[in-house]
Amino acid sequence: MSKLLKNIDNIIFDLGGVILEIDLDMIKKGFMSLGFNDLESSFETFKHNQIFEKFERGQIEPQVMRNEIRKASPNPFSDKEFEKVWNSVIINYPKENIQLLKDLHGKYTTFLLSNTNEIHYDFYTKMLSQEFGIEKLDLLFNKAYYSHTSGMRKPNPKFFELVLNENSLKPENTLFIDDFEENIEAAKLLGIKTIHLTGFNLADTLGTVNK
Fold this sequence. Notes:
The protein is globular and about 55 Å long. By secondary structure, the protein is α/β, with parallel strands linked by helices. The chain is 47% helix and 13% strand. It has eleven helices and seven strands. The N and C termini lie close together (6 Å). The strands form two sheets. A five-stranded parallel β-sheet has the order 5-4-1-6-7. A two-stranded antiparallel ribbon has the order 2-3.
């Protein structure tokens, strides 16, 4: 058993940058292809208006989000063009990560806790089905929690508490793995053990999972 899993009964995984390989530079390049030459200013506006956060919390529909982006764009673009750019951040599922989740399932109580959105969900769900014959991510965990269906997103402590309380988990026996430091710090404040994954090396980090 990996030393990192000592005294651990439950594991909560982030998705992007942990299980699913992503490249944030791709979406920046994609937005530039849509005509957003001043990315810093544009993204600051979207942050101020909370367009992305509202979309991740499921508070606005995909079409509303797309139209809000269109308003700020100097060039017109179709829904299809936008979704290609929006999904370009998603690269692939490494085979070793999918195998790791299969190995862990049944030996530990596992959960997914992801800041995501409807468009990305549809895209990476289809990718999982096509590449591994797995209908949806939920099948690899005891339960999956998505921000766009839960109405909350990390680092909101209530999102973590939802997982803990619904499943009667003890924080001291629970491990949370994420690639964003602010999410790690939020989990620590609740007494959850953490791994801040910085190199997208989940399988190598956890090592053997025999229990």
